[in-house]
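User: Hey, my collaborator sent me this sequence without any context and asked if I could get a structure. I don't really work with proteins. Can you help?
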Amino acid sequence: MIPAMAGSPVPLAAVSPLWGVAATQLRLMWRERRLLWLALAVLLLAGTSVATSTARLSAQSQERRVVAAREATLWNGQGTIDPHNAAHVGRAIPAPVRPLAAFDPGVSDFVGASVFIEGHAQNPARHRPIDAGAALSRFGGFSAAWALQVIAPLLVILAGFSTLSGEVARERLRQELGTGASTLALVGGRLIALAMAAGWLVLAMVGVSLPAILVQDAGLAEMAGLAAVGAAYALYLFVFCSLTVAVSGLFASARMSLVVLLGFWVLATLLAPRIGAAMAETLEPTASAPAFRAAVTEEAQNGVSGHDPADQRLDGLKAELLARYNVDDVADLPIDFRGVALEFAERNSTETYNRHFERVYATYHRQENLQRACAILSPAIALQAWSRAFARTDFAAHLGYLRGVEDYRYRLIQTLNHEVKQHKPPPGERYQADIATITRAVVYTPRRERPGDVAAAQAPNLAILLAWAALAFSLAMVSALRLRRHA
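Assistant: No problem. I've predicted the 3D structure and written it out in structure-token form, which is a compact way to encode the shape of the chain:
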């Protein structure tokens, strides 16, 4: 492509007018060395950021494998003890490292890297990577995804704001109209040229990130996710390409075109995402951690209604067991009532925690919907959600990890409690068992979501991007219809 651009102009009569205009425009953009060097600088910075992220992700992955192995060794090394004591010893479950985080880190640096599981409590994820300090923040906030979301639209605007506006462009336009080319061909050709340049930038950015992603043992799901992300960024930049050509055609002054486009760029890439987040947090606030804990404790003790104490519910369960086995005292039960009480307490606290956590997650979902409503101001909001979802660095992916850990925690603790219940010790003693043996069958398996499920969940954001693309393309066509009167 480069040698062809550097050659002599291709006459419009020699090829289709549309592609002839596109070839001419590409050649003009190629001669604008400042844009080329700026694009290369962005690629270099993105590549540096990706390389830094790769090294960090590799270190995190190795560290979490070591932590998982050490936790398993400590758990299995408890030997023969009271199973309920093991429930309070607990163990940490590290979060998985997402290969596509090298391209789009999303919120992965701001959520916890491990969850400590124990009986009677659901602990939040702790040890956020952002707390690691200066080494992490060296390129903090900059990534290949951020460059495509913020810097690439600016490059598109700088490359195309004067393609139809300004004295030089208008004079060239008159000459092209004199050859018999239609205004639709002139506008369409310029749009194709700008979209091709933007497409090459997306391919280059994805290409820079690909080795880093492959190093992280990425599978077919990650490759499919990367393809979906790349396609969304191409669609996103097409919006800016169409708007740039449209504004350039609607304004006779190149300076005015640039001012309008830069204003939209600031609103779309810098202001709207922050406005959406601030509005969502204001309209749908979440409870503080102390208030959350107090509400959980109150409900666990007094029930959902506030008038159903846990002690009375346990007394009802005891009466039911005594009636079932036709005995008068728990000491005469064929099972250990201590284990029954432990199972009840765990089930009660887990149901309470689940209800309260689901309310928090529902609030997060409403916040997400409010932010999505702000996509009327910017396609970047929908793009960010799509990109993070397929990179598995959004809160939904973190929530999948939290739910998987909680499912494992409940199965593990109830296995220990069931062991206590089924083995009644002699009076005055407590049952002991080998912890590794009785919990061997209880395995933690990270949840993996299929790309198709992610795509289904992100369908609204794709619809928003397509709507923006249709609107921007329509404006470009309107500018073509109005072009002749200004030429």
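In plain terms: Strands lie at 80-81, 91-94, 114-117, 433-434. You can pass these tokens on to your collaborator as they are.
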